Amino acid sequence: MRASDSPTSSIGGIAAARVAELRETEAATFRKARPKSEAKVGNGMAGFLGGVPMHWMTDWPTPFPILVDGARGATITDIDGNKLDDFCLGDTGSMLGHAPPAVARAIRRQAGRGLTYMLPSEDALAIGPLLQQRFGLPYWQIATTATDANRFALRVARAVTGREKILVFNGCYHGSVDETMVRLIDGKPVNRPGLAGEFRDLTRATKIVEFNDVAALEAALSDRDVACVITEPVLTNSCMVLPEPGFHDALRRLTRAAGTLLLIDETHTISTGPGGYTRKYGLEPDLFVLGKPVAGGVPASIWGMSADVATRYGAYSRTKEPGYSGMGTTLSANPLQFAAMRATLEEVMTEEAYAHMDRLARRLDAGLTAVIERYRLPWHVARVGARVEFICAPRPLKDGGEAEEAHAPELEAAIHVALVNRGVLIAPFHNMMLVSPATTAAQVRRLITAFSAVAARLAA
Ligand SMILES: Cc1ncc(COP(=O)(O)O)c(C=O)c1O
């Protein structure tokens, strides 16, 4: 018998029976509101493995995927005509709103001039200096996904240090980069459970310690065999874990002392501000990665390096055997990406846009916190800029191990569907909510009201 099967057990502080009841009734409500969608996708989509074009579409807790008709601003409409206030925003790909007008215009302009050439366009001339100014590093490359950007940056780190190992923090996610797929379970490094077709022992070349554990980090770096530490400034791919005061200073000091490079992956924490967490908090990465929203939803990513890394990589390249570097992908750095990225950087990711996002995200944080207090739920809210998360555990989390324990999948699934039935979409993997420049105060109010209604049912 699983813990949640016991009539007296609880999940995230809520009686399991109540969670199950909520899940069941909300699933029925969801179906009832979507007869057309159910007819089309209720039994899977023809021709696709597992009935969906991308396997994680079945990770949504709804009985079947929401079949989208269109999205505008921060609103999604499904084919049954249901409108949803979208706080998932493509899990950050649409963090700046769905098809921001400036980006849509740039895409339309470029569409008449070719989509991929393997040659630069004039937009690229503007982008290089924009990236330098905004993120503070002097040398940049364009890729298509954050996964690829991380993979390439790690390759450069290994090349210039001559070291094979990397170090990650427990609970991390940096895309489907094989060498980061490691976890600490019962204090031991292991391959991340569930990996398909992975026969290598990834822990041979990847060290792993808990986030915020400076002593463990120091010990792991002391062998001077780690090429690079790769981390998000805040762990956002487990339940959200904020850095403790002094953690980033220690991370930078210890990596420098050990001759280890520091790769900051801002793909989610770009929610902090136009220059990411890095600029707001004065981090000094050697390598920097940003994907997802950087071209307003067009697949694109950027990765940058310091002058020192660039010089060392130049020297390495002059001595390495000629041949393929292992970094590429044919459609990267195409003119559509340049057009969309330029519009995003110049016209969408502005200080004013972030001021709006931050203001509404604070309001959301306060509103959800007040609901949690009103119903005395053992939960809390965490936030990094425009990225807000309610976590079904009482206190702020210290590391990935605690974050794993705080995860309450059945409860979260029930809440997510209940929110959809009240007109609000949040991210399926965590209780993550993003505020975009297009999000309105009324949408934030509706989310707080919906959350309150669900909390009332759970607390009743
Ligand atoms: C911090 C971070 N880095 C990289 C990635 C990978 O992004 P993509 O799936 O677009 O390659 C993700 C995806 O969630 C992420 O959260």
Question: Which features does this protein show?
Answer:
single chain; 460 residues; alpha/beta; 4-stranded mixed β-sheet; 18 strands; 39% helix; globular; disordered N terminus; binds pyridoxal-5'-phosphate
Write the layout of secondary structure elements.
Elements: E1 10-11, E2 14-15, H1 16-32, H2 35-41, E3 68-72, E4 75-78, E5 83-86, H3 101-111, H4 122-135, E6 139-143, H5 146-161, E7 165-169, E8 182-185, E9 188-191, E10 206-209, H6 214-221, E11 226-231, H7 247-257, E12 261-265, H8 276-281, E13 287-290, E14 301-305, H9 307-319, H10 335-348, H11 351-374, E15 380-384, E16 387-391, H12 400-406, H13 409-421, E17 424-425, E18 432-434, H14 441-459
Parallel strand pairs: 5-17, 7-10, 7-11, 11-12, 12-13
Antiparallel strand pairs: 1-2, 3-4, 4-5, 6-14, 8-9, 13-14, 15-16, 16-18
The structure holds pyridoxal-5'-phosphate.
Brief summary:
With 460 residues, this protein is α/β, with parallel strands linked by helices. The protein contains 14 helices and 18 strands. Helix 6 packs parallel to helix 7.
Could you characterize what this model shows?
This protein has 460 residues and is α/β, with parallel strands linked by helices. The chain is 39% helix and 16% strand. Strands 6-14-13-12-11-7-10 form a 7-stranded mixed β-sheet, with helices on both faces. A 4-stranded mixed β-sheet has the order 3-4-5-17. Helix 6 runs parallel beside helix 7. The radius of gyration is 22 Å and the shape is globular. It binds pyridoxal-5'-phosphate (PLP). Pyridoxal-5'-phosphate binds next to helix 5.
